[in-house]
Amino acid sequence: MIEFYSPRVYKKVIPFSYSSSILVVLFSKTPDIWNFLRYSIWLDSKLRLQLDPMLILEYFLWRKGYEYAISNHYDRHCVWEEVAQNKKLNKYNHTIIDEQFAFYQADGLKRFNASDPNKLLPSNVPEGSFIVRAHTPMSNLFSCLWFNEVARFTPRDQLSFAYTYHKLRRMNPGKPFYLNMFKDCERRTVAKLFHHRSEEKRKILRHATE
Fold it and tell me: Please, what sign has the CA dihedral across residues 68, 74, 78, 79?
């Protein structure tokens, strides 16, 4: 009997000043830490896969030759909207968000226009809780560039995704990057959300059922 794949779950936390950045750190560090990997599936700790990993790789990558797959955001598609929402909810220091946003605009970031036939992405705001990737040179480069932006400005990776992608395409015109940005409803079908429970809540629930 041939074992076609051996899934491995990595739960080790990589130290960083802001927990939501760990995901992108892992994206960028994987080629150096685990050189044997050819493909990986990354998901938020609150999500649980509902399908066989091989089926996920086949659907999101292999079927159409993609090397990186991430869903669009369920509600917002323009970085302008994402900036406003982050500031409204006080997700990070407003001054630093403004500096990041001003830098991106000065370097060519434009408002998302869904009707533009030449747009490079179906949405400029991703939902980064579930990512499927092949460990190709362009996929690794994109991940490293994305992490650079997270480390340089804010850990709100949805703010820097579109800028990083457009910059990668602009700086590498002769090297295609096969990115699959799929609909959020597909993500919710494949990975279900399970909210964390604190230890105290677990004890209360346990006592209530005894």
Answer: negative
